[in-house]
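Interim report, section 4.2 (structural modelling).
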Amino acid sequence: MNSTSALAELPQLERRTLSETVYEALADLLASGRLAPGDRLSLRQSAAALGVSVMPVREAVSRLAADGVLEVAPNRVIRVPVMSAAAFRALAETRIAVEGIAVARAAERRTAEELATIRRAEAAFRAEAEATKPDRTRAVQLNRDLHFAIYGACGLGPLQEIIARLWLKAGPVINLDLRVHPERLLQGFALRRHAEALAAIEDRDAAAAAAAIAADIREAAEFIMDRGGLRDTQEED
Amino acid sequence: MNSTSALAELPQLERRTLSETVYEALADLLASGRLAPGDRLSLRQSAAALGVSVMPVREAVSRLAADGVLEVAPNRVIRVPVMSAAAFRALAETRIAVEGIAVARAAERRTAEELATIRRAEAAFRAEAEATKPDRTRAVQLNRDLHFAIYGACGLGPLQEIIARLWLKAGPVINLDLRVHPERLLQGFALRRHAEALAAIEDRDAAAAAAAIAADIREAAEFIMDRGGLRDTQEED
DNA sequence: GCTAGTGATCTGTGATCACAGTTTGGGTGA
DNA sequence: TCACCCAAACTGTGATCACAGATCACTAGC
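Predicted structure of the assembly:
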Protein backbone atom coordinates (compact mmCIF):
# COMPACT_ATOMS: atom_id res chain seq x y z
CA MET A 1 0.00 0.00 0.00
CA ASN A 2 2.04 2.86 -1.30
CA SER A 3 -0.61 5.55 -1.81
CA THR A 4 -2.97 5.48 1.16
CA SER A 5 -4.09 9.02 0.52
CA ALA A 6 -5.33 8.06 -2.92
CA LEU A 7 -7.17 5.08 -1.52
CA ALA A 8 -8.97 7.29 0.95
CA GLU A 9 -10.55 9.14 -1.92
CA LEU A 10 -12.18 6.03 -3.33
CA PRO A 11 -15.93 6.34 -3.19
CA GLN A 12 -17.51 3.77 -0.93
CA LEU A 13 -19.22 1.64 -3.53
CA GLU A 14 -22.59 0.61 -2.26
CA ARG A 15 -23.58 -3.01 -2.04
CA ARG A 16 -26.66 -3.64 -4.11
CA THR A 17 -28.64 -6.62 -3.00
CA LEU A 18 -31.14 -8.32 -5.22
CA SER A 19 -33.90 -7.39 -2.82
CA GLU A 20 -33.11 -3.75 -3.32
CA THR A 21 -33.17 -4.08 -7.08
CA VAL A 22 -36.51 -5.82 -6.92
CA TYR A 23 -37.81 -3.16 -4.55
CA GLU A 24 -36.89 -0.43 -6.98
CA ALA A 25 -38.45 -2.30 -9.87
CA LEU A 26 -41.71 -2.69 -8.00
CA ALA A 27 -41.63 0.86 -6.70
CA ASP A 28 -41.18 2.12 -10.24
CA LEU A 29 -44.12 0.04 -11.40
CA LEU A 30 -46.24 1.57 -8.65
CA ALA A 31 -45.05 5.14 -9.02
CA SER A 32 -45.67 5.13 -12.75
CA GLY A 33 -49.16 3.73 -12.42
CA ARG A 34 -48.46 0.53 -14.34
CA LEU A 35 -49.66 -1.26 -11.23
CA ALA A 36 -53.13 0.08 -10.56
CA PRO A 37 -55.15 -0.03 -7.33
CA GLY A 38 -56.73 -3.46 -6.97
CA ASP A 39 -54.13 -5.22 -9.09
CA ARG A 40 -52.91 -8.44 -7.57
CA LEU A 41 -49.33 -9.54 -7.31
CA SER A 42 -47.92 -13.03 -7.06
CA LEU A 43 -44.55 -13.67 -5.50
CA ARG A 44 -43.73 -16.56 -7.78
CA GLN A 45 -44.91 -14.88 -10.94
CA SER A 46 -43.06 -11.67 -10.10
CA ALA A 47 -39.96 -13.66 -9.28
CA ALA A 48 -40.18 -15.52 -12.56
CA ALA A 49 -40.74 -12.30 -14.49
CA LEU A 50 -37.68 -10.73 -12.86
CA GLY A 51 -35.60 -13.85 -13.20
CA VAL A 52 -34.90 -14.29 -9.50
CA SER A 53 -36.15 -16.56 -6.78
CA VAL A 54 -39.04 -15.63 -4.53
CA MET A 55 -36.79 -14.57 -1.67
CA PRO A 56 -35.81 -11.10 -2.90
CA VAL A 57 -39.37 -10.49 -4.00
CA ARG A 58 -40.63 -11.43 -0.56
CA GLU A 59 -38.40 -8.90 1.13
CA ALA A 60 -39.28 -6.16 -1.33
CA VAL A 61 -42.99 -6.84 -1.00
CA SER A 62 -42.82 -6.92 2.78
CA ARG A 63 -41.14 -3.52 2.76
CA LEU A 64 -43.75 -2.13 0.41
CA ALA A 65 -46.48 -3.66 2.55
CA ALA A 66 -45.01 -2.10 5.68
CA ASP A 67 -45.34 1.29 4.01
CA GLY A 68 -48.92 0.61 3.02
CA VAL A 69 -47.99 0.78 -0.65
CA LEU A 70 -49.02 -2.84 -1.03
CA GLU A 71 -51.26 -4.83 1.24
CA VAL A 72 -51.54 -8.51 2.01
CA ALA A 73 -55.15 -9.44 2.53
CA PRO A 74 -56.09 -11.98 5.20
CA ASN A 75 -56.45 -14.42 2.29
CA ARG A 76 -52.72 -13.93 1.82
CA VAL A 77 -53.41 -12.15 -1.43
CA ILE A 78 -50.99 -9.36 -2.24
CA ARG A 79 -52.45 -6.41 -4.02
CA VAL A 80 -52.26 -2.68 -4.52
CA PRO A 81 -54.62 -1.19 -1.92
CA VAL A 82 -57.92 0.14 -3.16
CA MET A 83 -58.21 3.49 -1.47
CA SER A 84 -61.58 4.80 -0.39
CA ALA A 85 -62.38 8.40 -1.17
CA ALA A 86 -61.99 9.23 2.52
CA ALA A 87 -58.57 7.58 2.68
CA PHE A 88 -57.44 9.38 -0.45
CA ARG A 89 -58.62 12.67 0.97
CA ALA A 90 -56.72 12.03 4.20
CA LEU A 91 -53.63 11.18 2.21
CA ALA A 92 -53.95 14.37 0.17
CA GLU A 93 -54.37 16.46 3.32
CA THR A 94 -51.35 14.83 4.87
CA ARG A 95 -49.37 15.58 1.75
CA ILE A 96 -50.51 19.20 1.79
CA ALA A 97 -49.36 19.55 5.38
CA VAL A 98 -46.05 17.72 5.10
CA GLU A 99 -45.03 18.95 1.68
CA GLY A 100 -46.14 22.40 2.73
CA ILE A 101 -43.54 22.37 5.47
CA ALA A 102 -40.86 21.25 3.06
CA VAL A 103 -41.66 23.93 0.49
CA ALA A 104 -41.83 26.65 3.09
CA ARG A 105 -38.43 25.69 4.43
CA ALA A 106 -37.05 25.37 0.91
CA ALA A 107 -38.22 28.90 0.10
CA GLU A 108 -36.41 30.25 3.12
CA ARG A 109 -33.21 28.30 2.85
CA ARG A 110 -32.67 27.58 -0.84
CA THR A 111 -29.22 28.39 -2.17
CA ALA A 112 -28.63 29.92 -5.56
CA GLU A 113 -27.67 26.54 -6.98
CA GLU A 114 -30.76 24.87 -5.61
CA LEU A 115 -32.88 27.61 -7.10
CA ALA A 116 -31.22 27.04 -10.45
CA THR A 117 -31.95 23.32 -10.24
CA ILE A 118 -35.58 24.01 -9.40
CA ARG A 119 -35.84 26.47 -12.26
CA ARG A 120 -34.44 23.94 -14.70
CA ALA A 121 -36.85 21.28 -13.47
CA GLU A 122 -39.77 23.66 -13.84
CA ALA A 123 -38.74 24.52 -17.37
CA ALA A 124 -38.36 20.85 -18.27
CA PHE A 125 -41.85 20.01 -17.05
CA ARG A 126 -43.30 23.05 -18.76
CA ALA A 127 -41.67 22.10 -22.04
CA GLU A 128 -43.08 18.60 -21.89
CA ALA A 129 -46.56 19.70 -20.82
CA GLU A 130 -46.78 22.35 -23.51
CA ALA A 131 -45.48 20.07 -26.22
CA THR A 132 -47.86 19.36 -29.06
CA LYS A 133 -47.85 15.69 -28.16
CA PRO A 134 -46.78 15.34 -24.53
CA ASP A 135 -45.45 12.01 -23.29
CA ARG A 136 -47.45 11.24 -20.19
CA THR A 137 -44.91 8.91 -18.64
CA ARG A 138 -42.20 11.46 -19.13
CA ALA A 139 -44.39 14.26 -17.84
CA VAL A 140 -45.10 12.30 -14.66
CA GLN A 141 -41.40 11.77 -14.13
CA LEU A 142 -40.61 15.43 -14.74
CA ASN A 143 -43.36 16.51 -12.37
CA ARG A 144 -41.84 14.29 -9.74
CA ASP A 145 -38.39 15.64 -10.46
CA LEU A 146 -39.60 19.19 -10.00
CA HIS A 147 -41.31 18.51 -6.70
CA PHE A 148 -38.33 16.70 -5.28
CA ALA A 149 -35.96 19.36 -6.52
CA ILE A 150 -37.93 21.72 -4.33
CA TYR A 151 -38.11 19.37 -1.34
CA GLY A 152 -34.42 18.67 -1.66
CA ALA A 153 -33.77 22.27 -0.67
CA CYS A 154 -35.62 21.98 2.64
CA GLY A 155 -32.50 20.73 4.44
CA LEU A 156 -34.33 17.99 6.33
CA GLY A 157 -33.42 14.50 5.20
CA PRO A 158 -36.05 12.65 7.22
CA LEU A 159 -38.74 14.90 5.80
CA GLN A 160 -37.72 14.06 2.25
CA GLU A 161 -37.95 10.35 3.00
CA ILE A 162 -41.42 10.81 4.42
CA ILE A 163 -42.54 12.65 1.31
CA ALA A 164 -41.05 9.98 -0.94
CA ARG A 165 -43.14 7.38 0.85
CA LEU A 166 -46.27 9.50 0.57
CA TRP A 167 -45.71 9.80 -3.17
CA LEU A 168 -45.25 6.08 -3.47
CA LYS A 169 -48.55 5.59 -1.68
CA ALA A 170 -50.43 8.11 -3.79
CA GLY A 171 -48.69 7.17 -7.02
CA PRO A 172 -50.94 4.36 -8.22
CA VAL A 173 -54.12 6.39 -7.80
CA ILE A 174 -52.78 9.56 -9.35
CA ASN A 175 -51.04 7.94 -12.28
CA LEU A 176 -53.87 5.56 -12.99
CA ASP A 177 -56.12 8.59 -13.24
CA LEU A 178 -53.64 10.32 -15.48
CA ARG A 179 -53.69 7.34 -17.81
CA VAL A 180 -57.46 7.38 -18.00
CA HIS A 181 -57.87 11.16 -18.14
CA PRO A 182 -54.77 12.56 -19.78
CA GLU A 183 -56.53 15.82 -20.49
CA ARG A 184 -55.82 17.01 -16.97
CA LEU A 185 -52.27 17.60 -18.05
CA LEU A 186 -53.44 19.93 -20.77
CA GLN A 187 -55.54 22.15 -18.59
CA GLY A 188 -52.42 23.68 -17.16
CA PHE A 189 -53.41 23.71 -13.51
CA ALA A 190 -50.11 22.19 -12.53
CA LEU A 191 -48.21 24.60 -14.76
CA ARG A 192 -49.73 27.61 -13.07
CA ARG A 193 -49.11 26.29 -9.56
CA HIS A 194 -45.55 25.36 -10.40
CA ALA A 195 -44.91 28.83 -11.72
CA GLU A 196 -46.37 30.34 -8.56
CA ALA A 197 -44.22 28.10 -6.41
CA LEU A 198 -41.10 28.93 -8.37
CA ALA A 199 -41.76 32.65 -8.10
CA ALA A 200 -42.38 32.37 -4.36
CA ILE A 201 -39.20 30.40 -3.85
CA GLU A 202 -37.29 33.04 -5.79
CA ASP A 203 -38.75 35.68 -3.49
CA ARG A 204 -38.11 33.54 -0.40
CA ASP A 205 -41.82 33.84 0.33
CA ALA A 206 -42.47 30.72 2.41
CA ALA A 207 -46.22 31.20 2.81
CA ALA A 208 -46.85 31.76 -0.88
CA ALA A 209 -44.72 28.77 -1.84
CA ALA A 210 -46.59 26.50 0.56
CA ALA A 211 -49.90 27.82 -0.76
CA ALA A 212 -48.92 27.13 -4.36
CA ILE A 213 -47.93 23.53 -3.66
CA ALA A 214 -51.00 23.02 -1.50
CA ALA A 215 -53.16 24.21 -4.39
CA ASP A 216 -51.27 21.94 -6.78
CA ILE A 217 -51.94 18.91 -4.60
CA ARG A 218 -55.50 19.87 -3.76
CA GLU A 219 -56.53 20.52 -7.34
CA ALA A 220 -55.15 17.24 -8.55
CA ALA A 221 -56.86 15.38 -5.72
CA GLU A 222 -60.18 17.09 -6.31
CA PHE A 223 -59.97 16.40 -10.01
CA ILE A 224 -59.50 12.71 -9.31
CA MET A 225 -62.25 12.55 -6.72
CA ASP A 226 -64.68 14.44 -8.96
CA ARG A 227 -64.01 12.01 -11.74
CA GLY A 228 -64.80 9.13 -9.42
CA GLY A 229 -61.37 7.76 -10.08
CA LEU A 230 -61.55 5.87 -6.80
CA ARG A 231 -63.14 2.49 -6.66
CA ASP A 232 -64.86 1.90 -3.35
CA THR A 233 -64.83 -1.83 -3.94
CA GLN A 234 -62.40 -4.01 -5.77
CA GLU A 235 -63.07 -4.97 -9.33
CA GLU A 236 -61.75 -7.92 -11.21
CA ASP A 237 -59.51 -7.09 -14.08
CA MET B 1 -76.41 -22.22 7.74
CA ASN B 2 -79.43 -21.41 9.80
CA SER B 3 -78.33 -18.14 11.36
CA THR B 4 -76.56 -16.07 8.75
CA SER B 5 -77.21 -12.88 10.69
CA ALA B 6 -75.25 -14.25 13.61
CA LEU B 7 -72.34 -15.12 11.34
CA ALA B 8 -72.26 -11.61 10.01
CA GLU B 9 -71.50 -10.35 13.49
CA LEU B 10 -68.33 -12.40 13.80
CA PRO B 11 -65.33 -10.14 14.10
CA GLN B 12 -62.84 -10.59 11.27
CA LEU B 13 -60.01 -12.26 13.16
CA GLU B 14 -56.70 -10.92 12.00
CA ARG B 15 -53.97 -13.20 10.81
CA ARG B 16 -50.79 -12.77 12.77
CA THR B 17 -47.69 -13.89 10.99
CA LEU B 18 -44.51 -14.73 12.81
CA SER B 19 -42.73 -11.91 11.00
CA GLU B 20 -45.15 -9.45 12.48
CA THR B 21 -44.64 -10.78 15.98
CA VAL B 22 -40.89 -10.56 15.58
CA TYR B 23 -41.22 -7.05 14.19
CA GLU B 24 -43.14 -5.95 17.24
CA ALA B 25 -40.67 -7.58 19.56
CA LEU B 26 -37.75 -5.79 17.90
CA ALA B 27 -39.64 -2.50 17.69
CA ASP B 28 -40.37 -2.72 21.41
CA LEU B 29 -36.71 -3.36 22.14
CA LEU B 30 -35.80 -0.28 20.12
CA ALA B 31 -38.54 1.99 21.41
CA SER B 32 -37.69 1.20 25.00
CA GLY B 33 -34.00 1.83 24.53
CA ARG B 34 -32.92 -1.71 25.40
CA LEU B 35 -31.24 -1.71 22.01
CA ALA B 36 -28.92 1.27 22.03
CA PRO B 37 -27.35 3.09 19.07
CA GLY B 38 -24.34 1.12 17.87
CA ASP B 39 -25.60 -2.20 19.17
CA ARG B 40 -25.24 -5.02 16.70
CA LEU B 41 -27.86 -7.58 15.84
CA SER B 42 -27.41 -11.06 14.48
CA LEU B 43 -30.18 -12.74 12.54
CA ARG B 44 -29.35 -16.19 13.82
CA GLN B 45 -28.89 -15.16 17.42
CA SER B 46 -32.10 -13.16 17.41
CA ALA B 47 -33.92 -16.05 15.81
CA ALA B 48 -32.59 -18.45 18.41
CA ALA B 49 -33.51 -16.07 21.22
CA LEU B 50 -37.05 -15.77 19.90
CA GLY B 51 -37.34 -19.46 19.16
CA VAL B 52 -38.02 -19.09 15.44
CA SER B 53 -36.04 -19.56 12.27
CA VAL B 54 -34.14 -16.75 10.63
CA MET B 55 -36.84 -16.14 8.04
CA PRO B 56 -39.27 -14.11 10.15
CA VAL B 57 -36.37 -12.18 11.66
CA ARG B 58 -35.09 -11.36 8.19
CA GLU B 59 -38.38 -9.86 7.15
CA ALA B 60 -38.74 -7.90 10.37
CA VAL B 61 -35.20 -6.56 10.14
CA SER B 62 -35.59 -5.63 6.49
CA ARG B 63 -38.69 -3.62 7.37
CA LEU B 64 -36.89 -1.89 10.22
CA ALA B 65 -33.95 -1.22 7.94
CA ALA B 66 -36.22 0.27 5.30
CA ASP B 67 -37.43 2.75 7.90
CA GLY B 68 -33.90 3.61 8.91
CA VAL B 69 -34.50 2.23 12.39
CA LEU B 70 -31.85 -0.37 11.78
CA GLU B 71 -29.10 -0.28 9.20
CA VAL B 72 -27.13 -2.97 7.43
CA ALA B 73 -23.57 -1.85 6.95
CA PRO B 74 -21.74 -2.73 3.72
CA ASN B 75 -20.03 -5.43 5.81
CA ARG B 76 -23.49 -6.94 6.14
CA VAL B 77 -23.49 -6.08 9.80
CA ILE B 78 -26.90 -5.16 11.20
CA ARG B 79 -26.89 -2.52 13.88
CA VAL B 80 -28.80 0.32 15.39
CA PRO B 81 -27.65 3.44 13.55
CA VAL B 82 -25.34 5.78 15.37
CA MET B 83 -26.83 9.18 14.72
CA SER B 84 -24.61 12.19 14.33
CA ALA B 85 -25.57 15.32 16.19
CA ALA B 86 -26.60 16.90 12.88
CA ALA B 87 -28.80 13.93 11.98
CA PHE B 88 -30.41 13.99 15.39
CA ARG B 89 -31.07 17.69 15.08
CA ALA B 90 -32.68 17.17 11.67
CA LEU B 91 -34.81 14.41 13.09
CA ALA B 92 -35.91 16.62 15.97
CA GLU B 93 -36.78 19.46 13.62
CA THR B 94 -38.76 17.11 11.43
CA ARG B 95 -40.61 15.87 14.48
CA ILE B 96 -41.36 19.43 15.57
CA ALA B 97 -42.81 20.21 12.17
CA VAL B 98 -44.79 17.02 11.64
CA GLU B 99 -46.02 16.55 15.17
CA GLY B 100 -46.80 20.25 15.28
CA ILE B 101 -49.25 19.78 12.45
CA ALA B 102 -50.87 16.85 14.20
CA VAL B 103 -51.27 18.70 17.50
CA ALA B 104 -52.63 21.80 15.81
CA ARG B 105 -55.23 19.75 13.99
CA ALA B 106 -56.03 17.81 17.14
CA ALA B 107 -56.65 21.04 19.04
CA GLU B 108 -59.09 22.18 16.39
CA ARG B 109 -60.93 18.93 15.82
CA ARG B 110 -60.79 17.00 19.11
CA THR B 111 -64.09 15.64 20.34
CA ALA B 112 -65.09 15.62 23.97
CA GLU B 113 -64.20 11.94 24.28
CA GLU B 114 -60.79 12.45 22.73
CA LEU B 115 -60.16 15.32 25.11
CA ALA B 116 -61.08 13.07 28.01
CA THR B 117 -58.67 10.41 26.79
CA ILE B 118 -55.89 12.97 26.48
CA ARG B 119 -56.65 14.30 29.95
CA ARG B 120 -56.46 10.82 31.43
CA ALA B 121 -53.16 10.14 29.67
CA GLU B 122 -51.74 13.41 30.93
CA ALA B 123 -52.79 12.60 34.49
CA ALA B 124 -51.29 9.13 34.26
CA PHE B 125 -47.93 10.45 33.11
CA ARG B 126 -47.98 13.17 35.75
CA ALA B 127 -48.73 10.66 38.47
CA GLU B 128 -45.81 8.49 37.42
CA ALA B 129 -43.39 11.37 37.01
CA GLU B 130 -44.28 12.88 40.37
CA ALA B 131 -44.13 9.58 42.18
CA THR B 132 -41.50 9.32 44.87
CA LYS B 133 -39.79 6.54 42.95
CA PRO B 134 -40.82 6.78 39.33
CA ASP B 135 -40.48 3.76 37.08
CA ARG B 136 -38.59 4.97 34.05
CA THR B 137 -39.79 2.28 31.69
CA ARG B 138 -43.36 2.95 32.67
CA ALA B 139 -42.88 6.70 32.42
CA VAL B 140 -41.53 6.34 28.89
CA GLN B 141 -44.56 4.27 27.93
CA LEU B 142 -46.98 6.76 29.49
CA ASN B 143 -45.27 9.65 27.76
CA ARG B 144 -45.70 7.84 24.49
CA ASP B 145 -49.33 7.09 25.29
CA LEU B 146 -50.02 10.75 25.97
CA HIS B 147 -48.44 11.97 22.77
CA PHE B 148 -50.27 9.44 20.66
CA ALA B 149 -53.54 10.15 22.42
CA ILE B 150 -53.12 13.68 21.16
CA TYR B 151 -52.04 12.70 17.65
CA GLY B 152 -54.91 10.24 17.48
CA ALA B 153 -57.28 13.19 17.52
CA CYS B 154 -55.78 14.79 14.42
CA GLY B 155 -58.03 12.80 12.11
CA LEU B 156 -55.26 11.94 9.64
CA GLY B 157 -54.29 8.29 9.63
CA PRO B 158 -51.25 8.62 7.38
CA LEU B 159 -49.88 11.37 9.59
CA GLN B 160 -50.08 9.15 12.65
CA GLU B 161 -48.16 6.41 10.88
CA ILE B 162 -45.46 8.87 9.94
CA ILE B 163 -45.13 10.03 13.51
CA ALA B 164 -44.97 6.45 14.77
CA ARG B 165 -42.03 5.84 12.47
CA LEU B 166 -40.30 9.00 13.60
CA TRP B 167 -40.66 7.90 17.21
CA LEU B 168 -39.24 4.51 16.39
CA LYS B 169 -36.26 6.21 14.80
CA ALA B 170 -35.67 8.58 17.69
CA GLY B 171 -36.49 6.01 20.36
CA PRO B 172 -33.09 4.43 20.85
CA VAL B 173 -31.32 7.76 21.29
CA ILE B 174 -33.90 9.28 23.60
CA ASN B 175 -34.42 6.26 25.78
CA LEU B 176 -30.75 5.46 25.99
CA ASP B 177 -30.23 8.97 27.28
CA LEU B 178 -33.06 8.53 29.74
CA ARG B 179 -31.39 5.43 31.10
CA VAL B 180 -28.11 7.23 31.58
CA HIS B 181 -29.56 10.51 32.84
CA PRO B 182 -32.83 9.70 34.57
CA GLU B 183 -32.81 13.05 36.32
CA ARG B 184 -34.26 14.69 33.25
CA LEU B 185 -37.57 13.18 34.16
CA LEU B 186 -37.48 14.87 37.53
CA GLN B 187 -36.86 18.35 36.27
CA GLY B 188 -40.43 18.54 35.10
CA PHE B 189 -39.85 20.09 31.72
CA ALA B 190 -42.08 17.54 30.08
CA LEU B 191 -44.74 17.99 32.74
CA ARG B 192 -44.98 21.70 32.13
CA ARG B 193 -45.15 21.33 28.34
CA HIS B 194 -47.74 18.60 28.60
CA ALA B 195 -49.89 20.79 30.82
CA GLU B 196 -49.57 23.65 28.34
CA ALA B 197 -50.53 21.38 25.47
CA LEU B 198 -53.51 20.00 27.35
CA ALA B 199 -54.74 23.48 28.21
CA ALA B 200 -54.33 24.62 24.62
CA ILE B 201 -56.21 21.62 23.31
CA GLU B 202 -59.00 22.31 25.76
CA ASP B 203 -59.16 25.90 24.44
CA ARG B 204 -58.92 24.68 20.84
CA ASP B 205 -55.88 26.93 20.51
CA ALA B 206 -53.97 25.27 17.68
CA ALA B 207 -50.96 27.58 17.72
CA ALA B 208 -50.39 27.28 21.45
CA ALA B 209 -50.75 23.51 21.35
CA ALA B 210 -48.20 23.23 18.56
CA ALA B 211 -45.85 25.53 20.45
CA ALA B 212 -46.10 23.44 23.60
CA ILE B 213 -45.30 20.18 21.82
CA ALA B 214 -42.53 21.88 19.86
CA ALA B 215 -40.99 23.05 23.13
CA ASP B 216 -41.37 19.58 24.60
CA ILE B 217 -39.50 18.02 21.70
CA ARG B 218 -36.90 20.77 21.45
CA GLU B 219 -36.04 20.77 25.15
CA ALA B 220 -35.60 17.01 25.23
CA ALA B 221 -33.42 17.12 22.13
CA GLU B 222 -31.29 19.96 23.45
CA PHE B 223 -30.87 18.20 26.76
CA ILE B 224 -29.56 15.14 24.98
CA MET B 225 -27.27 17.08 22.68
CA ASP B 226 -25.87 19.13 25.55
CA ARG B 227 -25.10 15.99 27.44
CA GLY B 228 -23.18 14.67 24.48
CA GLY B 229 -25.48 11.70 24.39
CA LEU B 230 -24.66 11.22 20.76
CA ARG B 231 -21.64 9.25 19.70
CA ASP B 232 -20.15 10.54 16.52
CA THR B 233 -18.32 7.31 15.99
CA GLN B 234 -19.20 3.82 16.97
CA GLU B 235 -17.86 2.33 20.15
CA GLU B 236 -17.49 -1.26 21.05
CA ASP B 237 -19.69 -2.43 23.87
C1' DG C 1 -80.43 -26.66 -15.01
C1' DC C 2 -78.59 -25.58 -10.80
C1' DT C 3 -76.32 -26.16 -6.42
C1' DA C 4 -73.09 -28.41 -3.27
C1' DG C 5 -69.00 -30.69 -2.83
C1' DT C 6 -64.31 -32.18 -4.20
C1' DG C 7 -59.75 -32.38 -5.80
C1' DA C 8 -55.94 -30.13 -8.42
C1' DT C 9 -53.45 -26.01 -8.30
C1' DC C 10 -52.42 -21.89 -6.80
C1' DT C 11 -51.19 -18.67 -2.75
C1' DG C 12 -47.89 -16.81 1.10
C1' DT C 13 -45.24 -18.46 5.16
C1' DG C 14 -41.65 -20.75 7.43
C1' DA C 15 -37.58 -23.88 7.73
C1' DT C 16 -33.42 -25.52 5.88
C1' DC C 17 -29.49 -25.63 3.03
C1' DA C 18 -25.64 -23.50 0.23
C1' DC C 19 -22.51 -19.89 -0.51
C1' DA C 20 -19.43 -15.99 -0.56
C1' DG C 21 -17.57 -12.62 2.20
C1' DT C 22 -16.13 -11.00 6.84
C1' DT C 23 -14.48 -11.28 11.31
C1' DT C 24 -11.75 -13.30 14.82
C1' DG C 25 -8.60 -15.78 17.45
C1' DG C 26 -4.79 -18.65 17.89
C1' DG C 27 -0.62 -19.84 16.43
C1' DT C 28 3.86 -19.09 13.87
C1' DG C 29 7.33 -16.40 12.20
C1' DA C 30 10.89 -12.91 13.00
C1' DT D 1 7.45 -9.30 22.34
C1' DC D 2 5.26 -8.02 18.46
C1' DA D 3 3.45 -8.45 13.71
C1' DC D 4 1.62 -11.30 10.45
C1' DC D 5 -1.13 -14.93 8.57
C1' DC D 6 -4.18 -18.57 8.08
C1' DA D 7 -8.04 -21.29 9.30
C1' DA D 8 -12.30 -21.86 11.70
C1' DA D 9 -16.57 -19.73 12.81
C1' DC D 10 -19.40 -16.35 11.94
C1' DT D 11 -22.20 -12.91 8.91
C1' DG D 12 -26.26 -11.82 5.59
C1' DT D 13 -28.08 -13.31 1.05
C1' DG D 14 -30.28 -16.28 -2.05
C1' DA D 15 -32.37 -20.72 -3.53
C1' DT D 16 -35.08 -24.59 -2.56
C1' DC D 17 -38.23 -27.42 -0.19
C1' DA D 18 -42.41 -28.32 2.78
C1' DC D 19 -46.83 -27.04 4.33
C1' DA D 20 -51.33 -25.15 5.46
C1' DG D 21 -54.79 -22.61 3.59
C1' DA D 22 -57.40 -20.36 -0.35
C1' DT D 23 -59.14 -20.50 -5.08
C1' DC D 24 -61.26 -22.35 -8.97
C1' DA D 25 -62.89 -25.57 -12.34
C1' DC D 26 -65.28 -29.46 -12.59
C1' DT D 27 -68.46 -33.17 -11.53
C1' DA D 28 -71.94 -35.74 -8.97
C1' DG D 29 -76.45 -35.40 -7.11
C1' DC D 30 -80.84 -33.34 -6.74
